[in-house]
Amino acid sequence: SLSERLDSVFKKIKGRGRLDEASIEEGLREVRLALLEADVNYKVVKDFTRKVKEKALGKEVLKSLTPGQQVVKIVHEELIELLGGKNVGLELKGKKPYIIMLVGLQGSGKTTSAAKLALFLRRKKFSPLLVPADVYRPAAIEQLQKLASEINIPSFGSSSNMKPVDIALQAREEAIEKGYDILILDTAGRLHIDEVLMNELVEIKQACSPQEILFVADAMTGQDAVNVASRFDELLDITGVILTKMEGDARGGAALSIKSVTGKPIKFIGVGEKLKDLEVFHPDRIASRILGMGDILTLIEKAQSSIDEKEALKLEEKLKTAKFDLEDFRTQMKRIKKLGSIEGLLKLIPGMGKLRDQLKNVKIPEKEMAKLEAIINSMTKEERKNPKIINASRKERIAKGSGTTVQDVNNLLKNFEQMRKMMQQMMGQMGGGRRLGMKN
Ligand code: GDP
Ligand code: MG
């Protein structure tokens, strides 16, 4: 990941007091590559790295961060800024019924997003009417009507021989009549931008002045989406963007580019084919994803609430000097319990791919956790500090006390060394994440 790459670049200059120009340049080369790999527009990348450089130059290296982490931190902050800072919600003002118009190329996800949005808005106590206005693509009207009935949301009875603008106007009449307070207009898309289609969209816009014109873009199409977005924005003055197919490997480079090229906020992301798979767009999360940092903010929040700074330092020290004992192990288990499962934790930690591979052969004792804890709880403090003294009779006592068997106790002791290594790695990773998130 980018964070790892930067870390190795900056290892060399660890200990220097300041981030000097040469080392920043070196780090920024990695940033540039990573952004280009994430399909961020070349001009955007150039602009962006210049800004980061300005910010980073001459900054004192914080004691709590490695220089690499510090640059990552600046990059992260700037990415969030570039993505719009905070989430921008729908701006629904003026006379009801409100109108949200979805536009974009064919296959970008307009029809699906229309239904997703209707579901989202109903949860917000609106009563939406879905309006199919794609009269070109065969069965496009039925597609939306079918989705609408799946989620029990009314849809307008468009027919493919109507003009889209008339569909919009008539649907508005129906909404007023029946008391729907929001219309979601699904429009036609072409494979490429096409004058006729664009004129039609402009006509709809002029006829019914939608509160929102959302450009729907497929995140997987990367750079293309950026050019298309600019064109739609020029003609329609869009109010925002829905970025679809953002689940899985889509890295969000398109998001970054679209926002900075059009200046229009990304309001939602589609994260799957199901109608519940719509999320409000959070710049910080996408920034983390672009950096390959996992959902670091969530991790930091969780970690900060359960990790005491001093305790963590003590622990680090112990790990370094290999004085980590069963007593410490028990503390860690409690911590992991607070953080959720080990698996959940691994997902959140940056650069975990590697560690997860290493751990493949180590039995992750998630389910066994309670048992292990019971066994350790049944030991005396002395035994926890120095497991070597646990002889046969002690084992029997511990097994009885914890409702387990001597075999279980033996296993625990045998595996402890292995688990200790795992903990050591985990704490190392967590330490990185925690420090990265510290305010300064
Ligand atoms: P339209 O031509 O713009 O109306 O696009 P559709 O809504 O018909 O979607 C085209 C294809 O993309 C369909 O197969 C959808 O199921 C799929 N799709 C839409 N949004 C998402 C998404 O967020 N994730 C995934 N994986 N697929 C999506
Ligand atoms: Mg469609």
From TrEMBL:
E.C. number? 3.6.5.4
Instruction: Give the enzyme class.
Output: hydrolase
Keywords, sorted A to Z: Cytoplasm, GTP-binding, Hydrolase, Nucleotide-binding, Ribonucleoprotein, RNA-binding, Signal recognition particle
The record's listing under PROSITE patterns reads: SRP54
Q: Name one GO cellular component term.
A: signal recognition particle
Name the Gene Ontology biological process terms: SRP-dependent cotranslational protein targeting to membrane
What does the entry list as the binding residues for GTP? 104-111, 186-190
One of the record's GO molecular function terms? 7S RNA binding
Where does it localize? Cytoplasm
Q: Which residues form the SRP54-type proteins GTP-binding domain?
A: 265-278
State the family it belongs to: Belongs to the GTP-binding SRP family. SRP54 subfamily.
- What PANTHER family does the annotation carry? SIGNAL RECOGNITION PARTICLE 54K PROTEIN SRP54, SIGNAL RECOGNITION PARTICLE SUBUNIT SRP54
Functional note: Involved in targeting and insertion of nascent membrane proteins into the cytoplasmic membrane. Binds to the hydrophobic signal sequence of the ribosome-nascent chain (RNC) as it emerges from the ribosomes. The SRP-RNC complex is then targeted to the cytoplasmic membrane where it interacts with the SRP receptor FtsY.
Name the chain's protein. Answer: Signal recognition particle protein
What is the gene called? Answer: ffh
